[in-house]
Prior knowledge:
Radius of gyration: 20 Å
Helix content: 10-25%
CATH architecture: Beta Barrel
Number of strands: 14
Amino acid sequence: MMKKLIYMIYINLLILMLSGCQPAVNHDFIMPLLEDYQLEDFDYVDYEQMYPNKRKTLSEEALDHAVKSNVWIHNVAYNNPWLLIDASLYTGSGVIFHETEDYYYVLTNAHVVQKNEAYIFQAFEVYDYEDNKYDGFIYEGSVDLELDLSVIVFAKEDTELTVLTLANGQVLIGEIVYAIGNPLQKRNVITDGKVVSYNRTVVEDKDGNINYMNFYAITHDASIDEGSSGGMLINIDLYIVGINFASGKDEEKVESFSIPSNLVVSYLNELISEQNNID
């Protein structure tokens, strides 16, 4: 009897230890109705061509401002709502592009929010630049697999975050750009480089599937890595000029790929227009 009791205590302690290493899920979170967070509009500016010799670098103060728009997205998949030993965690990055009185709106990749079909449930945890945690959710109808874009929404709390503006246009080849994201579990990583070219790309997803991207992506040499997906590409005016979605496999050559911001603007305008027509 004593051995059985000790064994049960050991098993319970093991379960508590393992569950402590897994992501937590807020079971009290209730996703709001679309009418409560629906986008009416968003801000963007016409892209102004910035030739490489006009300015060289962003100041530390400007970069600190941009970092406050960077979020870390945890896509949690699980079967047991109360014991997350059997759970899957996929992480990515995002950039805040809009706010209302109650919500922040984040651009990220569709593959960052994709549901793991091996699990029943899905939840999103959003961490701001200071690692404050929020309950996030996918903006209804925003997942676009062809462009690899989606929007995550989360409710405002006490921390004031930066909202960056999209540029409606194509960044010039040779222009200086900065990538900000959360690669390899690291937070608020900033890399810089230049736009190299525009190319159609072939990417391999986390499951080994090959996807052909039909749009011309920005190719740049600001280094990104696993976890940077959905993160911002900005120019020296702090405008969003791209959303990062992939990096090259050549270890000797830095090659990163971003969805051009003019396609992002069109995607958001279409999303708003479609929902207004439904209403």
